[in-house]
Amino acid sequence: MHNHRHSLECILPEHMLEQIATKGSDAQKQMAMDNINVVYQLRAERAMRASLADLFAPTMPRAADGGKERIVYDVKRGTSLPGAAVRREGDPASADAAVNEAYDGSGITYDLYKEVYGRNSINNNAMRLDSSVHYRTGYDNAFWDGKQMVYGDGDENLPAEDRLFNRFTIAIDIIGHELTHGVTQFEAKLVYSQQPGALNEHMSDVFGSLVKQYQSRQTAAEADWIIGAGLFTPNVNGVGIRTMKAPGSAYDDPVIGKDPQPAHMKDYVNTASDNGGVHINSGIPNHAFYRAAMEIGGYAWEKAGMVWYATLRDKLGENSNFQQCADLTHQTAGELFGSGSLEQQAVKNGWAGVGITIGGETPEPKGCLEATLRFIGAAPS
C-alpha cells in the first residue's frame, strides 16, 4: 500500500517520465525506465524509514550556532547519502557548478523564510541545510528525503541529441520548491494524495517561485512565474516544467508530451496516477495565487506570500482541500491586512478566477463519479 503520509516528493512528475518511456528514443526510454524504477525504490525506502521514524523520532541536523548552516555533499554518482562533504558554511565557492548552486539556492531559500517570514530554517528550529549533488548517473530528478535535499545531474550520460534535462540544481525555484516540502512536513503535513497532495505541491511551487523572485528582486509583474526554467535542454519544446501564469502551456513536446495542468476547476483532472494528480491539479491553486499576487502588485513575497505562509503555518491541516485553502487564505488576508482590504479582495478574486467561491461548496470536479466508478471497475472505461 502506498504511504501517502511519507511519500517521496520529486520535482519531476512521473507522468513526464512515463511519456518519455513511451515516446522517446531507445536511449531516452531506457533513461526514463531507470528513473521510474529509482522513484519506486526510493519511495519504498522512505516509507520503511518513516514507519521506523514513527517509533523513533528522527533527529534533524541542527546548525551549530542556531543560525544559517549549509553543507553540500558529493555523492560522486553513487547512491549512498549524504556523500562526502565538499562545501561548508562560509567556504569559498567550489569549481563545481552544482555544488555552488545547491549552496546558494538553499541559502536564498533560508533567507526568504528568515528575513520575510521570521522562520528559522525549514523546521523553524535552526535545522542545518544539507544538500547532496551528483546523485546516481543520469538521474533526472531532485527530491527532499525528509531530512535533506538530493539532486541528480540530468541526462549527462546520453548523447547530445538525446539529452532532455540539464542538472537539477540549475533552477533556484526547484531548490526552493523541494525545501518547502520540508516546511510543509513540519507545518500542515498535507497528505501527498488528491487535493491535499496537490496543495502540498502548490505550496512548494508558490515558495519556489517566490525564492526566485526574492533573489532577483522582481515584482509580481516582472516575474516569469515559470517553475524550472533552464531545466530543459534545447531539444525540448518548453519553457519549464510548470507555469503558474498559464497552467497547461509550459511545454508541448513530441517526447515529453503536453503540459497537463488545468487552470480552472472545470478542467480538474481525475486520475489514479500521480497520487491522484498532485502535480497536475496543483495548477488550479497555483493560478489562484498568481492572480491574487498580480492584483495586489509589488513584491509577491511581501503580501500574497505572507498570506499563504501564515495559512500553511497556522491553519491548513493534513487533509485540507482546495475549498478550505481558499477560505483560509481569505480569512488570513483579512486578519493580516483588514477585512475588505485590497489584499483580501485580491485573494477572493484570485480563487474566483479558478472557479472557487469563498465560503462556497467544494466544487464537484466534473466526471468525478464516473472516474471513481471506472477506477473501481464499476463503469466502462
Provide a short characterization of the protein structure.
With 381 residues, the protein is of the alpha+beta class. It has helices at residues 14-23, 26-55, 97-116, 172-186, 194-216, 274-277, 283-296, 304-314, 322-337, 342-352, 368-375, and strands at residues 9-10, 70-74, 84-88, 129-133, 142-144, 149-151, 226-227, 242-243, 252-253, 257-258.
What does this structure look like?
The chain is an alpha+beta fold and 381 residues long. Helix content is 43%, strand content 8%. It folds into 2 domains: 47-186, Elastase, domain 1; 187-381, Neutral Protease, domain 2, CATH 1.10.390.10. It has helices at residues 14-23, 26-55, 97-116, 172-186, 194-216, 274-277, 283-296, 304-314, 322-337, 342-352, 368-375, and strands spanning 9-10, 70-74, 84-88, 129-133, 142-144, 149-151, 226-227, 242-243, 252-253, 257-258. Strand 5 and strand 6 (149-151) form a beta hairpin. Helix 3 (97-116) crosses helix 5, helix 4 (172-186) crosses helix 5 (194-216) and helix 9 (322-337) packs antiparallel against helix 10.
What radius of gyration results from the CA coordinates?
20 Å
Overall shape: it is: globular
Number of strands: 10
- The CATH homologous superfamily of the largest domain is called Neutral Protease Domain 2
Helix content: 40-55%
Instruction: List segments where confidence is low: pLDDT < 50 over at least 5 consecutive residues.
Output: 369-381
Average of pLDDT: 92
How many domains? The number is 2
CATH class of the largest domain: Mainly Alpha
Structural class: alpha+beta
Query: How would a textbook summarize the main sheet?
Result: 6 strands, mixed
> Secondary-structure element order, as H and E?
EHHEEHEEEHHEEEEHHHHHH
CATH architecture of the largest domain: Orthogonal Bundle
